[in-house]
Amino acid sequence: IWGNPANDRKFLPEQFSSTLVKIQNKTFGISDAIEIRDLNSSTISVVILASLDKFSNVTFSQLSNTSTTFTASLRFQSLSAHNNSTVGIVWAISNTASDALNQAVLFARNFTSAFASCQTSWEALWQSAFVPDNSNFSGSLPTLETSNENLSRLYYSSILSMFNTIHHPNETSRMTFSAISPVAAQSMMYMWDSGYVAAVWGLLDPKGYLHAIDDMLGALGNDTTGGGLNAHMAVDTLSGTGLGEWYAFNDYSFTMAADTLVRFLGPETLKTSLHNQTLLSWFTRSAMFWQTLVSDLSPNQWLAAYGGNENLLEVVPSYQQVVPSLNAANAWMMRALADYLEMDEEGKAYAERLRDWANNVQMATQQELYFEGEGVWGCYQRVGEDSKLVQVRHILDFVNILHSLGRQLPLETRNEMLAFALRELKDENAGWFRALSLSDVTASWAATHRDDHGPYGAWDGWVAKSIEAFGILGRWDEAMSVVDMAARASLEGPFGQSHHVMAPNVTWTTRQHKSGDWLVGEYFALCGGMFANVIITALFGVNPSRTSVGSFTQDELMFADEPRGFDGVLKNVRIKGDLYSIISDDTGLHA
Questions:
Q1: Three-state SS annotation for 500-557
Q2: Is the separation of the CB atoms in 19 and 65 below 8 Å?
Q3: Which one of 62, 442, 465, 571 is most buried, by most CB atoms within 10 A?
């Protein structure tokens, strides 16, 4: 049993402490048990070894605990040569020691039947997710039928990966999804991650998704300002408290989530009350938050600064302050808000002003932060008393700027971004991406060598977003090549926080491999659901109109006249109360 609550990179180390306590009560067939406390998040784990046969008298031994890790080995007391032993392991997580112990003992007492029920209960839950009007979720997911085996595997593997992060904060609460697990942050929910799976989560369980957003609005802000998203990075679902530094992507991710929900559920969703305000009020607050961050690092008034390395990529110190991805996002958020406001006659004038501001923000981002001829972007930073534009060659700008600005970018810029991604990010030999280009000036720095954000791998979610990015660039062949790449990667198991890519001088293997420990990435991650997300919204082009209240039409499919390179049908897509099938063939998309 191994874990590291102190070294979760998304928190400052001094915020963590833990204790390891040996539990003496060994009743109910329990061979041994330990209690593990993470005092920062109020998470308490109880791990029980259940005796399942006469040889399974097994105990925890060699217990050790520091401020950063706890470890425990298992010792079999009576297992002799040529005999086999089976040990049941129960791991319960709660915010009280008694509740965690009671949960663990309940399953340990009836381990064999409890273990068998896992298969049947999970199979039932999985099947119900694709059945409209099922009893487990407030919505349902589309089914995909296609002759493309890699596409089918990727879609269902992605959803299964997301299901591996399902989490119940307590017995009576709704189901939610934690961002990563199993070692660190098992009870944590992040707005950044949650916003990226908006279509999948919103279709599967729209009521649950709205509840989760409500929880984050109540916990991620400063209490003195009545909630919000601008104080913390995560909410601990066990205690309901916000934790960690502010993540600068919170507002952008929230607006992606809100926009997707309104597109699929209908404009009436804007009136939903969340933490004492309407969804539209929160949308307005997030879309305009950039105005409080306008920086003198930029020569004009249109670009905002988003804090330091700890608020952004954490391990890429050159990506900070006036960053291109979030300034491009400001233009997208204001354009989306304008669409919603102009539904009301009184909002039309302000909507036009928002579009003018969005144009100015986009122009400033392109003119000041783009490196012409290279396909990459830079950040304004303070060096001494001066402002300096620092180039950063990262996948984050590739996928997010194309999502925000899309084909509004000049054709030459788009072609240069495409060339950069194919040349420096997408590693055909490895079968994966590098988040940070090896040509970036910081790629040789040890501080950047984390699989999810650095040069030796990429966060699985950004690889998924690259499918959308290549499609926006009109390169559906490249989008489908990523589908093939990711489908092969799924043979290792569920998508998680990242996959590792070797250095160029490694000769014994060139293939990517799944990351699965705290140094390089959690084994399970919510971002695994992003592949299914982009299959729905990009490959099948399902982007319903923001303002339409009628039937979904062919005109609402993204780039419908562009063939995607596969034949298939996405069935039972619920849009504004009705179910639709979306067809992909050699002429494009059809609703």
A1: ECCCCCCCCCCCCEECCECCCECCEEHHHHHHHHHHHHHHCCECCCCCCCCCCCHHHE
A2: yes
A3: 465
Average pLDDT, rounded, for the chain: 88
What is d(CA 275, CA 227) in angstroms, rounded to the nearest whole number? 7
Burial bucket for residue 584 (CB in 10 Å: 0-12, 13-18, 19+): buried
Above 50 in pLDDT, residue 434?
A: yes
Query: Of the candidates 132, 126, 278, which has an alpha carbon nearest to the alpha carbon of residue 203?
Result: 132
- Alpha-carbon distance of 483 to 493, in angstroms, equals 16
**What does each C-alpha distance from 134 to 153, 205, 375, 447, 571 come to in angstroms?**
24, 11, 47, 47, 16
Average pLDDT over residues 470-490: 97
Residue among 521, 319, 500 at smallest CA distance from 427: 500
What are the tens digits of pLDDT across the range 57-68? 677 766 666 555
With residues binned 3-state (H G I as helix, E B as strand, rest as coil), the percentages for the chain, rounded to 5, are: 40, 20, 35
Which one-letter amino acid corresponds to residue 149?
A: E
Structure confidence at residue 516 (pLDDT): 56
The whole-number pLDDT of residue 270 equals: 98
Distance CA 65, CA 335 (A): 52
CA distance 123 to 118: 8
- Condensed to tens digits (0 to 9), the pLDDT of residues 329-388 reads 999 999 999 999 999 999 999 999 999 999 999 999 999 999 999 999 999 999 888 899
Alpha-carbon dihedral sign for residues 253, 256, 259, 261: negative
Name the helix (H) or strand (E) containing 582: strand 578-585
Q: What is the pLDDT of residues 229-261, one digit of tens each?
A: 999 999 988 888 898 899 999 999 999 999 999
* pTM for this model (two decimals): 0.91
Angle at alpha carbon of residue 112, lines to 111 and 117, rounded to 5°: 95
CA atoms of 100 and 300, how far apart (whole Å):
55
Both tokens of residue 136? Answer: 């487990």
Q: What residues are paired with 88 via a beta bridge?
A: 50
Whole-number Å distance between alpha carbons of 435 and 10:
18
Residue type for position 33:
A
